[in-house]
Amino acid sequence: MENGVKEDKRLIFKVTQIYSLALLVGFSLLPSAIFSYLYFFQDKTLLFKSYQFHEVAITLSVLAGFIVSFVTWRCYQASGEILLRWLTLGLLGFTVIYAPHGLFTRTAETQFWVFILYGPTSRVVMAACFFIAMLNYGKSNEALQCRKTWMYWAKWSAGFLLVDVIVYFFAQLPIAGNKFIRLSLESAAFCLCLLAVIVMIRRKIKSSIMTVFAVSLLFFAQSSLGFTLVMAWNHLWWLAHAIFLGGFLLLSFVIVQAFHTTRSFASVYSQNELMVQLRAANQSLEKLASTDSLTGINNRREFFLKAKIECSRAKRYTSPLSLLAMDLDRFKNINDRYGHPAGDAVLLAFANRVKKMLRPSDVFGRVGGEEFMILLPETPMLSAEVVAERIRLKVEGMAVSIEGLELKFTVSIGLAQFGVDGEETKDWIGTADRRMYEAKKAGRNQVVMT
After folding, report:
1. 385 an active-site residue?
2. Beta strands 371-377; 400-402: pairing state
3. Are 35 and 236 in contact, with CB atoms under 8 Å apart?
4. What is the CATH number of domain 295-448?
5. Cα–Cα distance, 34 to 50 (Å, whole number)
6. Per the confidence metrics, is the pTM higher than 0.70?
7. pLDDT digit of tens for each residue in the chain (450 aa)?
8. How far apart are the C-alpha atoms of 35 and 45, rounded to whole Å?
9. Domain ranges of the chain
10. By Cβ atoms counted within 10 A, which residue in 95, 119, 157, 385 is the most buried?
11. Phi and psi for 410 in degrees, rounded to 5?
12. 186 and 228 Cβ atoms separated by less than 8 Å
């Protein structure tokens, strides 16, 4: 029944994983679906030619670009993450090169290619920087003293302004009107964005913030693809702008998330990721709270808790339950003569040897310095005696190497059966403990069961 429930949970988890992936892919490709619908079913000659609207839209885009560039730069300064340095350059480059696209709006009739070419140029510069950013994901962060100074950023800003000047003069040339120029720029931006996503998939980068970044890159790629198929001012041209805006808003969102948390793309976690980490941390704490730090077996608290559970089960089903109380003989002499590290080595060797001799259902715990106990469910006294004697003989033949010395030791064991030797957990454990001390008084290295 329990296995069936686990199988159902695994199946549901797998189905929801596939569904989640399908949603992600569907959302990422939604711009292409909308664009395709309008491309095939709308008159491409319909225009919305509003210089004022275009100027306002570009002005807001440029302002947003500078703000997001600044926030990304602050994240880089705080974390030294190389990916963030290249993201900053990509956003800054796009913003500086894209700005003239708005400034030259009203010259679109007389200087059409001056107006047009700043768009694809800004997109290809941004895509190139983002691709380099992905190649640097996960690399060691730059030390504080190695992070780029204002001179570095000034040089890059000057380089982007130089690109503006080059585009302006190039747009005056007859070759600028060749469709191949714009097609080449948009195609380059498209390919670089796709390559960045492919790098992410190949490297199996699955964090939520990088997933959103990948979706934004796919939006940018689809926007560039759209620009290759449209003419200025028609509705598809505006839609290509809107698709790019969607990618920009997604990227802005994850950058702000990084700024408000760790200021790093490599260490920002979603709520689900935090819950997974919290669950793992809780499991680790539970293990620490229930496990002996030296031997890795149950500690005193956990052992007695499980003993109560096993006693309740034995009562309910009237099944036999035996207990072995064990104490290493003359252990204090080992500590005094060879030191506590030698004593720890003996305890660890003893615990490891005994663990290998027990069933999965048996419960093994360290209840004191050199005191150990074993619960044997479904085991009557005579069978428990066989187990105890096997352990005693095995330990008697052991030797632990400490700095060239072979340390030998023995164990004294007391046995008790629940119900026969005590109706209550406390009394039953007390009986096994008393018999273990009787074994010591009788000469050590023996098993006492009565």
Report:
1. no
2. unpaired
3. yes
4. 3.30.70.270
5. 23
6. no
7. 445 555 677 888 889 989 998 999 999 999 999 999 999 988 878 899 999 999 999 999 999 999 999 999 999 999 999 999 999 999 999 999 999 999 999 999 999 999 999 999 999 999 999 999 999 998 988 988 888 889 999 999 999 999 999 999 999 999 999 999 999 999 999 999 999 999 999 998 888 889 999 999 999 999 999 999 998 999 999 999 999 999 999 999 999 988 988 888 876 555 555 566 667 777 777 767 789 989 999 999 999 999 999 999 999 999 999 999 999 999 999 999 999 999 999 999 999 999 999 999 999 999 999 999 999 999 999 999 999 999 999 999 999 988 888 899 999 999 999 999 998 999 999 999 999 999 999 999 999 998
8. 15
9. 17-277, 295-448
10. 119
11. -130, 175
12. yes
Q: Answer whether 156's CB lies under 8 Å from 89's CB.
A: yes
Please identify which of the residues 186, 310, 370, 385 carries the catalytic annotation.
370
What six digits make up the tokens of 124?
Answer: 């290809």
- In single-letter form, the type of residue at position 101 comes to H
Which amino acid does the sequence have at 303?
A: F
Q: How many residues does the chain have?
A: 450
